[in-house]
Amino acid sequence: MSIALGALSIASFWVVGLGFLLGVAAVVCGAIATSRSAVVDDEAASLRALLGVVAGAAGITVSAIALLPMLAHL
Questions:
Q1: In 3-state terms, what secondary structure has residue 1?
Q2: Which branch of life, at top level (predicted)?
Q3: Is residue 2 classed exposed, middle or buried when 0-12, 13-18 and 19+ CB atoms within 10 A define those classes?
């Protein structure tokens, strides 16, 4: 789930606020997934959760970079 939300946040960075919110949701879902005991024991699952966190952080970063010029014109 976190990978999908992270990918959507990167893809929708140009929609005001949507990419940022999806990125935050991806980071939260990835953090919750990494804390589960079933994920800790499975290396592939932990890498997927980490990828979701990274994708969410990238979405937040790209959205923030896109929003800063818009906020300057308000």
A1: coil
A2: Bacteria
A3: buried
Q: Would you state the structure tokens that stand for residue 28, as one six-digit string?
A: 């939260």
3-class secondary-structure state, position 13: coil
* Integer angstrom CA distances of residue 35 from 14, 43, 52: 31, 13, 14
Range of the domain at 7: 1-72
Q: How many helices (H) and strands (E) does the chain have?
A: 4, 0
Considering its fold, how many domains does the chain have in total? 1
